[in-house]
Amino acid sequence: MTQKNRLDGGLIDRSETWSFRFDSQYFKGHKGDTLASALLANGVRLMGRSFKYHRPRGPMTAGSEEPNAIVELREGARKEPNTRATTAELYDGLRASSQNRWPSLKFDAMQVNDLLSNFFAAGFYYKTFMWPAAFWEKVYEPIIRHAAGLGSLSLQDDPDGYDKGFLHCDLLIIGGGPAGLAAALTAGESGARVILCDEDFLIGGRLNLETYAVGGMSGAAWAAETVARLQAMPNVRVMSRTTAIGVFDHGVYGAVERVSDHLAVPEDGKPRQILWRITSKRALLCAGATERPIVFENNDRPGIMQASAVRAYANRWATTPAQQVAIFTNNDDGHRTASDLVAKGVEVVSVIDTRADAPTSSDYDVIAGGVIDQTWGRLGLTQIEVKMPKGGIRRITCGALGVSGGWNPNVHLTCHQGGRPVWNEGIAAFVPSGSLPPGMTVAGAARGIFSTHGALHSGADQAKAILSDLGMKVSAPSLPEAEDTPTRITPFWHVKTAKRAWVDQQNDVTAKDIKLAHQENYVSVEHLKRYTTLGMATDQGKTSNIAGLAIMAEVAGKAIPEVGTTMFRPPYTPTAMGVFAGRAWGMETRPTRLTPSHKWAKEQGAVFIEAGLWLRAQWFPQPGETHWRQSCDREVIQTRKSVGICDVTSLGKIDVQGADAAAFLNFVYCNGFAKLPVGKVRYGLMLREDGIVMDDGTAARLAEDHFVVTTTTAKAVPVYRHLEFVRQCLCPDMDVQLISTTDAWAQFAVAGPNSRKLLEKIVDEGVDLSNDAFPFMACGEITICGGLRARLFRISFSGELAYEIAVPTRYGDALVRRLMQTGEEFDVVPYGLEALNVMRIEKGHATANELNGTTTALNLGMGKMLSKTKDSIGSKLSERPGLNEPDALKLVGLKPVKPDHTVPAGAHLMTKGAKVTASNDQGYVTSACYSPNLGCHIALGFLKSGDTRIGEIIRLVSPLTGVDHDVEVVSPHFLDPEGDRLRA
Amino acid sequence: MHDLAPLCALGDSNPRTDSVAGVALTENPGHAFASIAARLGQETACAAQLATLLGGAAPNVGAMVSTNTYMAFWIGPDQWMISAPFDTHEDLAAQLKARFGKSASITDQTDAWVCFHMQGDGVERVMQLCANIDIEQMQVGAATRSVIHYMGVYVIRTAPDALTILGGRSSAGSLHHALLTAMRAAL
């Protein structure tokens, strides 16, 4: 198809002709086109269907405020629904599809809704789906969900990357029109660090869309020249394709840069978009203004647009929606469109001006005091009917109608922190109030200053004021001469006789809906919004809000400012979810921490499990093992029989030093640490202020003034944070210094009856590991393998004779290989988290399952550890009566009466014969496993008065998993209750 | 001399180097690190010891000082991180303990960190995609704590076109991925 509506001139690059497809049809366009401008050039006005009534729609605007021309852009995984054709940059090979229609855009079966419009008025859902109640879930909701929405998702992963970035500046200027450019020039030449961002790919705002001269040249040429000057300044960053989407605290602005949206596929490694967090000392909003439509009968046909958009398409994109165009206006700006179109050779069939004193023209016919009464054309405008000022109707043939109801300053960002705009009678529009976000000022059309001269000077003046406020020297550039036409407008909001007149075209809200809302007493502007959905679509009502408010004001008998406005919230324009996620998705959602033996474990075929951010070996399958239990059982049995090795680096390590280190630990642990000898380790229980257990671990005293505290993997950071709080806020007079050493040391548990023999083969001469020299709970700094510094702790989580040995992390891989090699004569095995868990349950050691944020030392059977002879965090509140009831939960062991029964974690305990109710609940299972040593399933759990119920048979129920059988209450120490093994 | 072979933080025997559009990202295992925290009441003495070691003043807030042997930067009130060549100072913490005595708590931090050097025209653009640092205003000799992709880091400007980035050793792979991805995106 030829570009039959392409005009001369414009800012497109005719040397680049590109092919693109819309639905099934191929077209040509040029570099510099948007999808909408290229389609209009090809004579295509119909670009979409409306949300509710599926009415044919074409572009209403030439910018980001577009409510109608919404398409699915691209195909496959890159398909992006609800994209505005008016901002989508054309590229060679672009693919776009219309949406919300079936089977085709021209014939949409769902248009039947339009015939049933009487049933679909505002509040339809609320009134219709109230009864019968049973229909809601099965009938109504599925139907509504099926009908709702516009575009469709690809349901595939987005193959492109999105970045987040951080920028800082003295002055952020939002909008690159005349005000923004003048401000940037002023601030840039004054030496301020400036960021100028604009949502368009061609910076200049309306300077690129108008024909008037600026400084003796075209506005577009002046804009291009100015942008080039700014880009040459090292202190100015000019960002096109960048939309400021939100204002946040402390001068922080969110801005989305569309890095690759104008390309079919992003360049290798480059993101599609970047979400910039811009920290500014000051911000100047130069976001311009949006022309608002007038509401009249059937004002939504393709070809009916903002008059300024018709002008923009003609001047910048050298295209017209039709060869015969009419204008409907209430202000002088509509006449500017008519003049520009005439200059471009487009026939202006008539200018219908609602004002009786409308200016006249020799270039086109003016109907002063006329209004549009009706329009015609099923898939695009063909005729309009004008109600003449002296009565009668004139029917005019035209393919497009430019509508100008005046201009609304783009105040949205001024409202993101609660500011409310105020009404300006002179321009009949809301302008920014004094309650702006801190650090923000407004210039140009966004401030209600509509002439080019006014915008230029407003921008420069505001920049000067900001620089002075920042204490910077101002170097003001000379500004060019420009038009300074005053605003002449007589407000006219809607044609009162209209029956189906569209206010919010994206959400299909009519003037009648607004009147109905008022009739049903939804008169508050916020209620009006929600009852009718006015302004709730993706365009946030940029072209509809004021008309809606005006109609509500009229029917309520109020002035527009009395009705007020709804709140604008971020984002300013629709924003892809991907850019909020940035790079944090898939495996990169969060950092991964690897243990020092990870490489070796991977070579062994270990199966890994996430433990917080860590990846830990869960078990090490051997040939012939087909189930994890086989691996786990083998690792447990072999460790208890001989020796096993487990990487325990992920447990938190905190270096505690200082003259008061012992006193400090004595305060943070509920048990005593003041007298722990050098060279000894002690198990410690740390309480929260409320007496509940926070974490457990060990503290090893390496010197009088030096401890190493260990924490559980999960609580490494919370415990460190807690200790810092205590150090800085509760004990500032203590001489204590803390630092994390978790990553600094590779630590391995070496457990089993042969662990000593194995370690003796790698420790250096003179290191005595005998029971006398290095007994249970000893610690020391040693050397191994010929001089490598190491730390050795004789502690045991498995209940066996066991050690934990730590070396600088870089040697962790070599150490595990050495231990495995040296341990071959003992048939050493590596064991993973599963085996570790089984062995600690067999031994009755608590872990996070038991330290679950609700349990006390008493519950854990460690009540006697809580020292009464000293003050420690949580000790007082642990004495609360409620935590010390006679039937308090106590940690017990549980064994099934029938050996083949399981004891699942999460199951609840009931007294035999009692009804299974919450009030009869006696406790619950916290940890469970199969014990290869005992040959049955075992578990740990909390049971009321559990310590006095050893031997009792109770009922284990888990309605969720269908378990209901008897278990015996036993000691939590299933294995070696006397601790002979670990002291061996 | 022990016979255990070390691994670099990224898991290989040799440090990794990547280059994108003239910017090199190099893993550097050649530094020993130790933290220095002044004991209560010993703040002046500790700072004086550090100043002597560095041949000048102890680094101020947000600053780094380097000599032929040492590089130290501020990490908190009366706290510093110091580094020296690993080959000659593997026992850096012990050396410092002997020097500082009771004026400071010294902790070996050598293997707590992965150390990346990033060098080339464009490091500022890369860092703008990584961390909320006003990198354009960050002078040579400045050091700051920040976050890259949810990971706590220290960023030190060692030259107009060079940065040193310290991150937790266990998450070295994730930090490397974040930095390299940002390099490919920015350059």
TrEMBL record, chain A:
Residue ranges of every copy of the SoxA A3 domain listed in the record: 499-582
Domain GCVT N-terminal, residue spans: 598-870
The keyword Oxidoreductase appears for this protein: yes
InterPro entries hit by this protein: 2Fe-2S-bd_N, BFD-like_2Fe2S-bd_dom_sf, FAD/NAD-bd_sf, GcvT/YgfZ/DmdA, GcvT/YgfZ_C, GcvT_C, GCVT_N, Sarcosine_oxidase_asu
Domain Aminomethyltransferase C-terminal residues, every copy: 890-976
This protein's UniProt keywords: Oxidoreductase
Keyword check for Ubl conjugation: no
Pfam family, any one: GCV_T
SUPFAM superfamilies cross-referenced by the UniProt entry: Aminomethyltransferase beta-barrel domain (SSF101790), FAD/NAD(P)-binding domain (SSF51905), Folate-binding domain (SSF103025)
Family statement: Belongs to the GcvT family.
Protein name, as recorded: Sarcosine oxidase subunit alpha
Species of provenance: Marivita lacus
UniProtKB/TrEMBL annotation, chain B:
Gene3D superfamilies according to UniProt: Heterotetrameric sarcosine oxidase, Probable tRNA modification gtpase trme, domain 1
SUPFAM superfamilies, per the entry: Folate-binding domain (SSF103025)
Protein name (database record): Sarcosine oxidase subunit gamma
Organism per entry: Marivita lacus
